[in-house]
Structure formats: C-alpha cells, structure tokens
Amino acid sequence: MMYRRELPDWKSEYLDPELETMTREQIEALQVERLKDTVKRCMNNPFYKARLQEAGVSPENIRSVDDIRRIPFTTKQDLRDTYPFGLASVPLTECVRLHSSSGTTGNPTVILHTQKDLDEWANQVARNLWMVGLRPDDIFQNSSGYGMFTGGLGFQYGAERLGMLTVPAAAGNSLRQIKFMKDFGTTAVHAVPSYVTRLYEVMQEQGVDPRKDTKLKVLAIGAEPHSEEQRQRIEQMLGVKAYNSFGMSEMCGPGVGFECKEQNGLHFWEDYYIVEIVDPETLEPVPDGEIGELVLTSIRREAMPLLRYRTRDLTRVLGRTCPCGRNHVRLDRMKGRSDDMMVLRGVNIFPIQIEKILMQFKELANNYLITLTTDENNDNMTVEVELEELFTDDYQRLESLKKNVTRALKDEILLTPHVKLVPKGTLPVSEGKAVRVIDKRTVYK
Question: Which pTM was predicted?
C-alpha cells in the first residue's frame, strides 16, 4: 500500500509544512542523518563499498554535510560500466520497477526503484504541484512520453497522489491534445517547452484561443534547457503561469526541483538530496552565485542511491531562503550542460545563450537550429531561425533584422555567426526534446 499522508486544508500553501518550512539548521541536521543512512546502505553494494573503503569513509565518521566532500564522485560512465544492476543496494527481489536511458552512445543507464522509492517520488511531484497552487479539483493533462522515460509516470503518479483527475495523453498528436484540453476542462499541463510552442501553433491553425476556449492556468515545463525569454513567451501565448521543472532519472525523475509561485529559482528538496555546485574542471566547490556543475546525492532512496552524482548540468545557487517560506536551496534555471558545450574557435558557447538572444526579437518565432561546419579549415556557425510572420518580400526589413540579430549574437557569444531567416514551418519540429544543434565539423587528426 502506498505511503501517503492526508492532504492538508486546500488553502494551505504547503503540502508538508513540517518539511517544507524547516530552518537551514534543521535541513542540515536531517541531511547528516540521512547521509549516514545512505552511506550505510551503499556499503551493501560492491562498487560503492570498495570506493568508500578506499576513501576512508564510513557512516560513523560523517559528522557534517561538509564531510560529503570526502566521498568520490559518481559519473554516468560508472552506471554504464556497471550495467545493468551493478549499483543496486538491495536485492532485485525488493525492486518493482526500472527506468533507463536510450543508450544511444553505449550501454543505457538503468535506475531501480523499490515500492517505497516510487511512493516517495510521487510525494515529491505532488509537493511541487501543490506548491504552484494545484489542488484536487484541478484536471492535469500529461503530454509527456510514458514508458522508460520518467517524465510521464513521474508526473502521473504525483498528480494522482495530489488527488487530481489526470489525463495521460502522452506525447504527440497535437489535435487530440487540444481536444482533450477543451472537452475535459484541463487546467494544468506538463510538456517540454518546444512542444508547448508547437501546440500553440496548432491552436492558431485551428482557430482555438487558449485564453477563451480552454481553462488552462498552469504549465509545468522542463526536460530541455530553456531561457527566461522563452518561458515569458509561453506565458503570454497561452495566458498561463509556466513553472520550471527539473528532474533526472538518476535521482528518480521529475520532482527533484521546481519553482514556487515567486518564480525566483528552482527549489531543490534538500530532505531528499544534498546539492553541490562545483567547478567542472577542478571539481572544487564554487561560491554561491557562481555558475558551476550541479552534483547531487540522493539521501532518501532504497534501491539505488547515488553518491555525489555529476549531472553535467550547469547552474548556480540563487539563495537559501525564499519569500514563500521555504528554505530549501534555490538554483537558477539550467544554463546548459558541460558536455553540451560547443567550442568554436576556442570560445565556449552554450545553445541557451543563442536562444536567449533570439527570443528578444518579436519578429522571430521559437524554432531555431544551430549548425556547425568546417569550411576551408575554419569552424563556422550557422543559426537558422524562423520568422514569426512572413515578410520575405520586404528585402530591406529582412536585411535590417538579420543585421540586428547577428550583432546581438556576436555581442553575446563573441563570434559572428551566419544568420538565416527562414519562413515559419521551414525547420524540423520534434514532439519530444528539441534538436537544437547539428555538428557537421570535420575532425582533423
């Protein structure tokens, strides 16, 4: 039977006030206790037992959160090297589900769950949804993929835990998505940002006004990096509040971090995770406010806790208190990934930097594509972006816009890209995570 507490009064701002409003001292004391338990659990695993013993780490010598720095990092390669079940800390007979990545670049990463892991995961997602004002009388439509991808089932169980009527629409079929929204009175939707844009385009084609013809009020968006400018566009298009969501299958899936109504950063639930931000090169901690790589330790999982997992996501600490009353650390939206970084002529560039600039031009639509090529031994970048409206016959206007976009991009990335303005609908559209970069460069040996 699923572990769950009774829902609080609907007017309560908190699903679990005792945990959500802990002081920083209480949070850190709980983390030390749970880190000790997690290290003890990891000693059941041969991989972790050897690493911890080599580092001289045992549950008994963990006295503060800072002691976590004595523990070696875990990487995605470690999961691949121990595929499929080499990082399990319980027997397979105690596990009830697994999720895995696609494995397109080698062995997939496999994550195991006990029933309690699934119950706690549902509670995390429910906490996020309650935090942004959703209640049991809301109708939640999930346009995320189900199956091995955690986004579908994670939000499904979290919405059910909260008591909402759920619509497991899954990914794709935009006409059906819109019909469901209208017919069922959907008030909240979970989707990746690029697909929200596609849904709005289909609404326009079908003459559907989301403000008048639907009851939408909340969007949960995540699974791909997106800029603040794109979020604001989504809110303006649909007339909703769009809250940023962060999750990853290695930690459980969605539910790890979420924005509150203040929309001033992602609250990472520190009763479930220990959060570190480190320099991707030196692996040393960086000061609050400085961008670094997010490292997470799961301290509430049974089947497969991970110690100091390098997420490769780049972010920074914004604060450790919030006007909403929650003192769980607030992180900035993900700025990109350390392994997604493009290096062009010695300059480090992230796709999110380019999107940020493109979204500042009202003449441009949301769909864009970055192509990297090698021409006469020089690496070059082409940025194709769709026009919001068709005015290709106005040559002067097009050239002026192209010039302004190019200049703005150069100021941001310190290189001059080749900008192509193309008619709306020209670039490929994905109903999953958007493909933003194609690297066709020649590698010279």
Answer: 0.81
